Amino acid sequence: MASDTIAAVATPRGQGAIGVVKVSGPLAQQVAKSITGQDLQPRQAHYLDLHGQDGDTIDQGIAIYFNRPDSYTGEDVLELQAHGNGFVLDQLLDTVIAEGARLARPGEFTERAFLNNKMDLAQAEAVADLIESNSREAARAAVESLRGEFSRGVAVIRDQLIDARVYIEAALDFSEEEIDFLADSELADRLTALNKSIDSLLSRATEGRLMRDGITVVIVGAPNVGKSSLLNSLTGEDSAIVTDVPGTTRDLLREIIVIDGLPVHIVDTAGLRETHDKVEQEGIRRARQQIESADHILAVREAGQGIDKDLLQGLPIDIAVTWVFNKTDLHEPPIANPDSLVSEIYLSAKTGHGIDQLRSHLKQVAGFTSTPEGAFMARRRHIDALQAVRQLGLSANEHVTGTGAGELAAEDLRMAQDQLNLITGEFGSDDLLGEIFGRFCIGK
Amino acid sequence: MNKDNFYDVIVVGGGHAGTEAALASSRIGASTLLLTHNIETIGQMSCNPAIGGIGKGHLVKEIDALGGVMAIAADAAGIHIRTLNRRKGPAVRATRAQADRQLYRAAIRQAVENQPNLRIFQQGVDDLIMEGDRCCGVVTESGLQFRSHTVVLTVGTFLGGKIHIGDVQQSGGRAGDAPSIALADRLRDMPFRVARLKTGTPPRIDNRTIDYRELEEQPGDTPRPVFSYLGSTADHPQQTVCHITHTNEKTHEIIRSNLNRSAMYSGNIEGVGPRYCPSIEDKVVRFADRNSHQIFIEPEGLNTHEVYPNGISTSLPFEVQIDYVHSIKGFENAHITRAGYAIEYDFFDPRDLKPSLETRFVNNLYFAGQINGTTGYEEAAAQGLIAGMNAARQVQDQDPWTPRRDEAYIGVLIDDLITRGTLEPYRMFTSRAEYRLMLREDNADLRLTERGYQLGLVAEPRWVRFSKKCEQIDSTRDELSSWFVKADSDAAKAIASRFEVPVQKDQTALELLRRPELSCEGLHELFPKNITCSDPAVLEQVEIQVRYQGYIDRQLNEVEKQRRNTDTLIPPSLNYQEVSGLSSEVKQKLIEQRPATVGQAARIPGVTPAAVSLILVSLKKQEMTRAAHAG
Question: Of the four listed, B123, B446, B467, B536, which is most buried by Cβ atoms within 10 Å?
């Protein structure tokens, strides 16, 4: 029987009126009590208020508690059914995790059911297939999530964390060397810088430019190829415009469209070109900044033209680009080449022909699939890990500046590294020793 | 010698691994033979004359907690003893001693000679006696055969050893001893993966030719730390001081201009040296911005003039060694008694071992010590103890035992070796232990002695003393938690004035002790009637437990989460080719390494959580299939 408690949103993202959060493991009962405020009668549906961490009501919904072994996984299980709204489900999941559960790995509920004798031998292959295919998809989604500005932010945090650990661990393991970084104020500065980077990335990731829910798509291209009409065409057809945020300049326009319940942030930029106009220069500078933070780029050209090599060279290499060839009402599109590795879409923003194709392409780009393990979930895992890193970083800083307890700071940072490894891949104790020996002349 | 030359366990090698192996095996009742090529070198410290240090001191305490001899010998030989990291947290505090080589050797020899069930015989070993895939004895260099149920090989750097001084090479174990060429050749014929490592020593110097007047002096600690849980400062010999000097620009210039004559830089050495113990050539080249490096002048003993200048190991030619030594402050007229040298030797990829340290290819054969790619007396001794014990348990038809990573540094050491292997001589550091806060020097006995007693490793006197300590810890905790200190009481005022912290609310003394300003020993001194125990080790233990409580709970929680993986054994019969869903890369790794548990599999680099899930599912499937057939 597993000793930790897992949780996940069990319904596909952005679909359906009802969303389900599932919790399985020894903490399920305690979580039920704290979210519903009641001791639930096992195997009975209760309609009640579902509370968040601060005690406020998140939603009204149905809670069912199954005690082990009479549940799907064979462990204590809690099922929370609420409105199928991404924000509500996220809050519920946040609350469950704050109570000590962790995000389930792909296929983990089924895995537990199998390991706890809830399935028969004939299903073993199916379980293995499910684990394998879901984790392959999760790995792909994780790569999708780890791109652009987010990826660069994580890389900076990783370097800063390793840097701080190198100093602390060197001081602990090599106290006879002529180095004592624990006594050094530089270490506190390093930790402060680390925490600042995490805060900054988290706030960007959760509230603005790197939305936790939805992706940011930037439209670029030379002036007058029809970028603005493309934006209008995309948003105009959609009755469900959520917000119309005015751009920071008149050259930068942000819209949020919702495709099948999934928010996609679209930013229209100034045309990129050499100019002496001060205002336009500023617009272009901001456009470039915006491009850097995008999850995806739509590069717009006229249908009669080919790919713009100069434009392509100016774009960050780690952000995926889709070429949109506009004005098919004026120019005949070429025969589509199905083997092409380049994403190309031909449309007419004026007539609306081809816009649907673009919308479904964006849906795909956003990682929206029918399983819950898409890009959103991946990003969610990343954010969760970063939040844990943040907590541990703060605690480490307290130890260093307060009691000077180096081994406790080191312990916090080691755990922070474990969390960050979930995003960046393995960095173990031997890697750390390698960094120490590379930087300091250690040894007799 | 017994009449038919038959023993339960034969241990080959009389170094730190060999002696602990032989002692452990005979302690738990197996008739044991220790074979060494030279009885005079039993317990010899072949590198620097020191025991312990950060991470290593932890190992020594664990060996002691399991009834081993190393800590007792270190106390008998320690002529300069310190606690490193004293001002840092308890988890990283570590004991280190300069040891008198003769006294150390004598203490080990005495323990070995007086151990019941243990015989010693002087003869090098050239070959193993095999029956199928089982090792059942050895053949010595003069052709004598000794048979046994199990064999423990602890032959250190003697396998294919080659010594380099500048461009001069000779075969050798350590300077002055012959290498085991025949045995190395024999083992190379077996399917073990073999690689080369190297290590180095500095030139030794005659104490009387060093000018100490301007050198920094480093005294031992007062009060003096003790290694063994059974020991006391009364066990220590006369104490001495150490000195520190430094290399300078002139030293570095001499080394730089002779680099092409160093064995390492001329390409004569193929073995990989340790990153944490670079030669002076390496230091000068890799850290060119440093114009000075520390040298610890370590005395070799009370009755010798030889000193070990720690920090300038080298493979430069002898005449260059003389030049650079003379450029160092205090060494202007130094007389070198032995040249420094680099030594290359074979080691066997420890990933070919089981957690018991039995080899995977040859049954009943165990490897321990430097042969497994480690460096250091402490690392060797720790493996020796586990290998010797498991070799004896195999004879007694009992399951092997190896501590887990959350139980001991010994567990970290063995798990790292068998799971990840090593590319350089492996040395213990506290940063290798993910449960570092639990694995402290101060609680090695609490972690291991009870287990050691059950295993038969720990004798009655140690057990009695340990049990008493446990009782005192419990009763002191009880006293603290049942003593309620009211905010305005006299006790509160006395505490406030002694520790300079106000007591603002009513609380138990145990809660008060969480504050870093308080000490348990101080509370005992203030209120001997409330806190009755006066044993500093007990008071310290209670205090550390209280301070670390939150962190320890968190680590225990982590241990608990891993428990299912740690406890799930993978049967050797598992066919990874048939485990659905595993990538071919992961399959390859698992087939090569054959992890013993799911936990070990999870720690193999590249094995993902999903792969672990697939293994668990596959094991469950096997179990269900078996149950279906049985039913």
Answer: B123
DSSP B348-391: E-GGGB-TTSBBSSSBTEEE-SGGGTB-SHHHHHHHHHHHHHHH
Per-residue pLDDT, averaged over B335-347, amounts to 92
Q: Hey, what CATH topology would domain A6-116 get? A: Gyrase A; domain 2 (3.30.1360)
pLDDT value at position A18? 87
CA angle A241, A237, A228 (to 5 degrees): 85
- A175 interface with B at CB cutoff 8 Å: yes
Q: What chain A residue is nearest to B433 in terms of C-alpha separation?
A: A429
A421–chain B nearest CA distance, Å: 12
Contacts of B92 in chain A (CB under 8 A): 172-173, 406-407
**A-chain residues near B54 (CB < 8 A):** 172-175
The pLDDT value given to residue A237 = 46
User: Does the structure show a pLDDT above 80 at B315?
Assistant: yes
d(CA A354, CA A348): 6
Where are the CATH 3.30.1360.120 domain residues in chain A? 6-116
Q: Residue type at B136?
A: C
CB contact under 8 A, B429 and A131: no
Q: In this predicted model, what pLDDT tens digit does every residue of B176-228 receive, in sequence order?
A: 566 677 888 888 888 899 999 988 899 999 999 999 999 999 999 999 999 99
Rg (CA), chain A: 25
Residue-wise DSSP of A249-308: STT-EEEEEEETTEEEEEEE-PPP-----HHHHHHHHHHHHHHHT-SEEEEEEETTS---
Interface of A with B in 111-140 (CB under 8 A): 111, 114-115, 120-121, 124-125, 127-129, 131-132, 135
Q: Which residue in chain B has the smallest CA separation from A123? A: B621
Q: Which residues 15-54 of A have a C-beta within 8 angstroms of B?
A: none
Average pLDDT, consecutive stretches of 10 residues, N- to C-terminus, chain A (444 residues): 86 74 95 94 94 90 94 95 84 91 89 90 84 79 73 91 93 80 80 92 62 69 77 61 38 68 72 69 75 81 79 77 85 64 79 84 63 64 89 91 85 94 86 86 74
DSSP A303-352: TTS---HHHHHTS-TTSEEEEEEE-TTTSPPPPP-TT-SSEEEE--TTT-
- CB-based contact B54 A173, cutoff 8 Å: yes
Residue A146: what pLDDT? 73
Task: From chain B, pick out residues whose CB is under 8 angstroms from the CB of A423.
Answer: none
Percentage of the residues of chain B whose pLDDT score is greater than 70: 98
Considering CB atoms only, which of A175, A182, A410 is closest to B54? A175
pLDDT (tens digit per residue) in B60-106 = 999 999 999 999 999 999 999 999 998 888 999 999 999 999 999 99
With beta carbons less than 8 A apart as the criterion, state whether A153 and A196 touch. no
Mean per-residue pLDDT, B24-31: 97
Q: What is the pTM of this model?
A: 0.84
A124-145 and A108-115 are packed helices; what angle lies between their axes, rounded to 10 degrees? Answer: 150
Q: Count the residues in chain A.
A: 444
3-state secondary structure of B177: coil
Looking at residue A238, what is its pLDDT?
42
Q: Which of A5, A407, A439 to mutate to test the interface with B (most CBs of B within 10 A)?
A: A407
| pLDDT at A317 (0 to 100) | 75
The architecture (CATH level 2) of A215-366 comes to 3-Layer(aba) Sandwich (3.40)
Contact state of B85 with A128 under an 8 Å Cβ cutoff:
no
**Shortest Cα distance from A91 to chain B (angstroms)?**
25
- Least CB–CB distance from A132: residue in B431, B581, B621: B581
CATH class of residue range A127-211+379-425: mainly alpha
**Range list for CATH 3.40.50.300 in chain A:** 215-366
